[in-house]
Amino acid sequence: MIKASIALALVGLGVLGASVSGAVQVPFYLPLSTLALAGILMVGRDIPKFLRIFLVMIAATHLVLVLLILGATLGAITGDYTGYVPPPSAALGATAFGALIYGLSYVRVVQTVCRIADRYLDSQADSIIRIPFIGLVRAREGTIGTWMIAILIAINLAQVALNVRLSFFSRDMFNALEAKDAAAFWYQLFIIFTPLAAVFVAIALTEVLLQNVLTIRWRAFLNTYYVGEWLGDGAHYRMQIMGRGADNPDQRISEDLRKFVESTYSLSVGLMNQAATLVSFVAILWTISAGFTFPGTNVEVPGLLVWVCAGYAILGTWVTHLIGRPLIALNFEQERVEANYRFSLARLREYTEQVALLSGEPAEQEGLGRRFGQIVDNYMRIVIRLIKLNTFTSAYFQANVVVPYILTAPYYFIGKISLGQMQQVVGAFSRVESALTYFIQIYTTLADYKAVLDRLTTFEGAIASAQRIGGESKLAVTPAANRELRLKNLNVRLPDGRALMHADGLAFRPGERTLMTGPSGSGKSTLFRAIAGIWPFGEGEVLVPQGQSMMLLPQRPYIPIGTLREAVTYPSHGQAYPDAAIADALRAAKLPQIADRLDEERAWGQTLSLGEQQRLAVARALLAKPDWLLLDEATAALDEPTEAEIYQVIKEKLPQTTVVSIGHRSTLAAYHDRRIDLKRAENGLSTPVDLMQPQPAE
User: Fold this and answer.
1) pLDDT score for 697
2) pLDDT, tens digit, for every residue of 454-467?
3) How many helices (H) and strands (E) does the chain have?
4) Which CATH class is domain 107-468?
5) DSSP β-ladder status, 538-545 and 474-480
6) What residues of the chain score a pLDDT lower than 50?
7) The whole model's pTM is what?
8) 658: exposed, middle or buried (C-beta count within 10 Å: 0-12, 13-18, 19+)?
9) What CATH number does domain 473-690 carry, 3.40.50.2300, 3.40.50.300, 3.40.630.10, 3.40.50.720?
10) Which residues contact 551 (CB under 8 A, 6 or more apart)?
11) Collapsed DSSP state (helix, strand, coil) of residue 366
């Protein structure tokens, strides 16, 4: 940025010196605008990278404009090529847009957008991209994204330049028709229009390709980032137990990220495109209407059509904002109720058997109907608001067709402008008005985009809160040199701060099989989660044997969708164990009926009963062979004979594993060497009582 600023400043000083000496005849504001843009580049070197890309491309465009203007002034560009030379005011417009970009860097919403976008653009991850005619190129992912955005900006600016040139083609063609000059007409059609159209189509196709490649790479990076933040360090679990988690994280990662990437690109590049269009065609309007008089008077108004167009657009924008402002909140609410309904359907699919056993279909239908009713109610509020908005915008845009003709026809009839100029004015008026009313055209998109941005920021806030809770936790899990698992002055609390359990000096000895009992809600499962390191609420220390592995089997195991092999080996890779070992583990866990179906892919969590799921989890433990195995009512769904067989299998297959179980059945005592009972006091605080010898559970 500093080098670019210095280079642009040198160009500005050179043009200024040449202008003062009389070597070139250019408006005084041309070199001054170049120097001003150089200053903007210098002070803007610390703005977000996403905005810096636009600023640098604007500076490059400004430099090209200055060189074209100088070339025409010095006679280096002549003939039909002068149609490609912009007016000097275009360079001034580029400087104004550069100042606008710098100013936007201080707007809070834009800062939020750039903060999310810059995560991708600042990425240092190594990546590759296939470039036509070059092949595979290796570069940092952020560098690839930066170059693609820069090229797309250049393409959009080139399209604006082509549109300006086509407006002059339209003028010359209609003038040829008015003069009945066949030679000039065919010249304009084949020599001027055909090459321009071919170039326009080529860069349009390039834009489509680059835009889609950019959006999918951008989305893939952000998807990886947000999934990592959500799953990292147990944040997803803490978000749930804190009760302040953002609703439907699945939608925020899948849908909201997609909308963010697509809308950020389309809105930012679209705004730049419209700004460039505005600057370019305002110059045309101003030049043609320089001598126009105010209708019904002899008072000349410089650039009359520009002022009329601006007033017309400002009025339309203001009314559109008043009508459409409620759409932001309505779109946010629609995303929420849609996600809630989708989650309800997914949850029903997961618990179909339980619903069927309870004959709960009417209750589920009522609940689904109520949630869908919320979708309909909010949707109808959106429809009513859109009807109001579209009523105005449709009338507004229909009027656009005739307004420029109404304004220019009197001047054509008195011979002040030619037919070609009239058509050029109509086209330029439409372009300028379209650029000024860009806000009207994208208001609905902006409302939806703001809702998406709010959902992403609240999701980030929930993740940050969960990470902060984990980082500030005073409940530490510390590797220790001894072989025992020991609780040192441990206080386990609920998320609201209430004390749940206190233990000090309790030790679990290696090789010993311990049964933990106690009334429901006394903190047995919570203690296991504290030992596993995922429960952040409390104080004290859990000393775990250094270098030893631990596995916790909950009462309801998690069974991922996929092949049976992946379900059994989870969380390891599906190829982590030989097929024979996986099949043996399933047979040992009393699941011989599925041991030969390892490659069958289905939703095993719905296919298997809860008892079968618990035995599948035991098969995981048999494969993993952990040093410590915590069973949180992991056999509660089994009948007592099968439960006895499972504990015998664990004893035989995992002789070096220390087992700690939670359970309520009295029969469990026979499979353990020791029993610890959690006694709850009147104040709700539980403390462990070491009974040493197994006794029947209460």
Assistant:
1) 40
2) 888 988 888 888 88
3) 24, 15
4) mainly alpha
5) parallel
6) 694-698
7) 0.75
8) buried
9) 3.40.50.300
10) 620, 621, 624, 626, 628, 629, 630
11) helix
